[in-house]
Specification:
The chain has 15 helices and 29 strands. Strands 13, 14, 16, 19, 20, 23 and 27 form a seven-stranded antiparallel sheet that branches. Strands 4, 5, 8, 9, 11 and 12 form a six-stranded antiparallel sheet that branches. The protein has about 700 residues and is of the alpha+beta class. The radius of gyration is 32 Å and the shape is globular. Strand 11 (about 140-150) and strand 12 (about 150-160) form a beta hairpin. The chain starts with a strand and ends with a strand.
């Protein structure tokens, strides 16, 4: 009789708690100073209530710290240390708001583990000892503890608290300067002009000067919910003083690059110095006088080998409404945190100017970019993303040989309309929704849908079910129906061809699409996308006009059945490619189950001949679709795995966010490395005996 024995061995240099004391750093992740940030202020009392010292700690999403009342025998408690001073005295203990959340863990079965996630403020009543004037009071100190997620890192954050001004928090070591510097980026800004009259337009410009070989990511309205996405540049104008503001425009084009380890994640970044310009319009109703503008800029700088922690600064600038002047005012900056910029971006009102005014493009520039788009569209016909469907179209040309000239042109024209229609849809997304080219593949639902669609096509080519695919000789009674191609089928294959082409556009269209984006012109955007679609459709339109070209293709015959099956396997290979490139690991199993359900549905639907009466065919399809939907629903609700990604683009290990599962294959070298770092290691092994 076999019995399974499971042993979990603790290998540690001190105790279980030492796992909480390790200072393991991972390349590409935020440092402890960014995982938790500390700010402090003195808040004046109201009525008989005394003034308060308020210390706030904010952690990145998913990270937590421990309470100041955490009992010993477990994780390290947070400590608030105040620098000795005779300027004030405390009138009570610190109180946490919100209170800590208590958790229990198997390795501390009898201990209440008190955790704070997100934001916590500790407040204590204070009283000045030398004067009732709080304006001169300065309270300094630091907050020390551990910030944890799948690992724990020690942190120590100093603070300096002064009397709060209104509702605005004074940040640690905050000073207003005309420049905000990090080791990799220098941020400067200006507004031109700084004196305006109602009806004028000013431009607020923020410039990032980057160190050699470093880059920052594209501007986005808010931080994506997917924690594996790169941290975007955030620009928030939360105080506009009645002025109308347009969305930031970047001065340099973006580079889009899939990550080597995770090709489903495409990073969009500026490879060098970049400026963002915000248009500011002065409505006629704005009062004359000084107006204060303020907001946040947040960014993350990366190189090929590493990423610096996300940084942020709050910016301020004043403009005068009254008389016009061409002078320029510099923007001042105060250090902030990326977390505050994230919160501000989530709460910020939408931009007032939906389509900011831009300098008109010259006719030559528009024509040149349309020409590049046309060439890019022609080249898309030989891209690996498109070739599988182009193979189907070649079979259509073979079948068309011998047909009348008008029908050949009509079918090719319908196919071309299908191609161009998707380009126009994408142009609408780019013009009105801000959705960049190929960004639809960032959403795993689109990748899953494309895998399912191509898989169903492959099943048809392999004979699992019958559809009137062009030029393929069906079997049995379906043969006569499948001999000719309809306009709708030709149009749909044009749509599918374009959808498969979008990931391959890459280097061909960055210039043209960036040009269209910078112009903020709906007409130019449609012209660029339309030119690209027309370029992709051009070869098929030529064949429609000159059908004699078809005569150079092989004559129809028995070889077509073999070619049909071969193209089915090509489409299956395309499914594998989509599966690998655009479907996250956590959806592998449910997507595979969905494909199985579609396979079963197609087989079931094909049991009813295509020549059967409409009622029988409708009933068969209803059953088939019901089975596929049921299997898909059960798969994605019951079989979806945790968000576990083995590596991010920098090579850093990312642990399971839902299960805290950090198991890795055992090796002696890895074990020694962890022990040298003082990290608690759990070895889980089984034995049969």
């Amino acid at each position: 009789m076999l019995r399974m024995l499971t042993l979990v061995v603790f290998l540690t240099t001190s105790s279980v708690a030492s796992a909480q004391n390790t200072s393991l750093e991972l390349t590409g992740f935020a440092t402890s100073g960014e995982r938790v940030t500390v700010t402090a202020e003195v808040v004046a009392g109201k009525g008989d209530r005394p003034a308060e010292l308020q210390i706030t700690a904010r952690t990145l999403p998913g990270w937590h710290i421990y309470s100041i009342t955490q009992k010993s025998g477990g994780p390290k408690p947070t400590r608030i240390n105040l620098t000795a001073s005779d300027q004030y005295r405390l009138l009570g203990p610190f109180q946490a708001n919100p209170p800590a959340v208590v958790h229990h863990y198997a390795f501390w079965p009898d201990l209440d583990v008190e955790e704070h996630e997100g934001s916590v403020t500790w407040s204590v009543p204070i009283e000045p000892t030398q004067s009732d004037d709080l304006r001169t009071l300065v309270i300094s100190g630091d907050v020390k503890g551990q910030v944890c997620k799948d690992l724990c890192v020690d942190f120590s954050q100093p603070f300096e608290a002064r009397l709060a001004s209104g509702a605005r928090t004074l940040l640690t070591n905050a000073t207003n300067t005309d420049v905000y510097k990090t080791d990799q980026v220098i941020i400067t800004g200006q507004i031109t002009p700084s004196q305006l009259t109602p009806g004028d337009r000013a431009q607020l410009t923020l410039t990032a000067t980057l160190a050699d070989k470093w880059h920052v990511y594209a501007y986005e309205k808010r931080v994506p919910s997917d924690s594996m996405r790169s941290r975007p540049t955030l620009i928030v104008l939360d105080e506009r003083s009645g002025l109308e503001a347009g969305a930031p425009r970047a001065s340099t084009p973006l580079i889009s690059k899939p990550r080597e380890a995770l090709p489903e994640y495409v990073d969009n970044f500026h490879p060098g110095d970049v400026s963002w310009t915000i248009d500011l319009d002065v409505p006629a109703t704005v009062d004359r006088g000084d107006h204060h503008l303020s907001g946040f800029i947040g960014f993350m700088a990366c190189s090929e080998n590493e990423c610096a922690p996300p940084k942020a600064a709050r910016f301020d600038v004043n403009v005068t409404i009254g008389t016009h002047s061409d002078g320029t005012a510099a923007v001042s900056f105060t250090p902030s945190s990326y977390q505050e910029a994230t919160e501000a971006a989530s709460a910020a009102p939408p931009w007032d100017l939906v389509i900011p005014k831009a300098a008109p493009a010259t006719f030559f520039a528009i024509l040149a970019n349309m020409g590049w788009a046309l060439i890019a569209g022609i080249l898309l016909n030989v891209m690996p993303c498109v070739l599988p469907v182009i193979g189907l179209k070649v079979m259509s040309f073979v079948q068309q040989a011998g047909e009348d000239r008008l029908r050949i042109f009509t079918l090719n024209f319908a196919f071309s309309l299908g191609l161009i229609s998707i380009f126009l849809v994408l142009a609408s997304f780019a013009a009105f929704a801000g959705l960049a080219w190929a960004e639809q593949f960032q959403d795993p639902r689109f990748g899953i849908a494309m895998a399912a669609l191509v898989f169903v096509f492959a099943l048809s080519l392999l004979g699992i079910w019958e559809i009137p695919i062009p030029g393929f000789v069906g079997s049995g009674s379906a043969q006569s129906i499948a001999e000719r191609e309809g306009l709708s089928a030709a149009f749909f294959k044009g749509v599918l061809t374009t959808l498969l082409a979008t990931p391959c556009v890459g280097p061909f269209m960055f210039t043209g699409l960036t040009f269209a984006a910078e112009q903020h012109s709906v007409a130019i955007t449609y012209a660029i996308f339309g030119s690209m679609g027309f370029g992709m459709a051009l070869p098929f339109l030529f064949i429609g006009i000159f059908p004699a070209w078809i005569r150079f293709l092989p004559k129809p015959g028995a070889w077509m059945e073999s070619f049909k099956h071969l193209m089915g396997f090509v489409l299956l290979a395309t499914v594998v490619w989509i599966y690998y490139a655009f479907i996250p690991e956590r959806f592998f199993v449910p997507t595979l189950a969905l494909l199985f359900g579609l396979w079963l549905a197609c087989w079931w639907a094909n049991r009813t001949p295509i020549t059967a009466n409409f009622g029988d065919r409708l009933y068969a399809w209803i059953i088939a679709f019901s089975v596929a939907i049921l299997i898909g629903y059960v798969s994605f609700t019951q079989l979806t795995g945790p968000e576990r990604i083995a590596k991010d683009g920098t090579g850093a290990v990312v642990l399971d966010e839902e299960t805290n599962d950090s198991w890795q294959p055992f090796s002696t070298a890895r074990l020694e490395d962890y022990r040298d770092q003082g990290t608690t290691v759990l070895v889980d092994f089984t034995a049969d005996g």
